[in-house]
Amino acid sequence: MDTEIQIERVLPATIDRVYDAWTRAEVLAQWYCPNPQLELKVDADVRAGGAYVVEMGPHVVRGTYLEVEPPYRLVFSWQWDGSDGEPTRVQVELSEVAGGTRMLLSHTGFSNAEDAANHRQGWEPELDRLAGLLVPVALTDQQG
Fold it and tell me: Which of 32, 77, 105, 141 has the CB geometry, 3.0–4.6 Å to 87, for a possible disulfide?
């Protein structure tokens, strides 16, 4: 088992909309938790050296933005409150492709494969929520 996560998705939105979803606190608060039942609060100062805090019910993760290159790249540290290990690192790379935006999420620096697998189980439904949020309004209107 691996101690790194890589998840690739093609999202049905422009690169600017996807980047906004990763960098605007009010948009992050709509999807940035794998469990939609938990209250979600996000505070994000998106600039190199800026800090963020995400409260997912009783679970709190925080970190620092290490690289901010709109609208193509975002890199930040990731550490759960109460954990004593070194922070892990999340990198989000965006590129325009036919049908939307290719997003490659890499989460690295886990101390063991079990921790990496647990985080993958969190990222997958979270990214599903992001994809659902980005579905064009015209498509959702036709389905309703």
Answer: 77
Would 140 be classed as within a structural domain? no
Would 142 be classed as within a structural domain? no
Q: What is the pTM of this model?
A: 0.92
Closest-CA residue to 123 (of 56, 26, 27, 69): 56
- Asked, for residue 141, whether it belongs to a domain, the answer is no
> Whole domain around residue 43: which residue ranges?
5-135
Query: Which tokens is 115 given?
Result: 């921790």
Inter-CA distances, 16 with 19, 57, 71, 101, 115, Å: 5, 29, 6, 9, 32
Residue 17 lies in a domain: yes
CATH number reported for the structural domain that contains residue 12 in this entry = 3.30.530.20
Number of domains in the chain: 1
With vertex at residue 111, the alpha carbon angle to CA 8 and CA 82, rounded to the nearest 5 degrees, is 100
CA dihedral 7, 12, 17, 18 (to 10 degrees): 0
pLDDT at 80 (0 to 100): 97
Q: Mean pLDDT in the chain?
A: 93
What is the rounded distance in angstroms from the CA atom of residue 36 to the CA atom of residue 108?
25
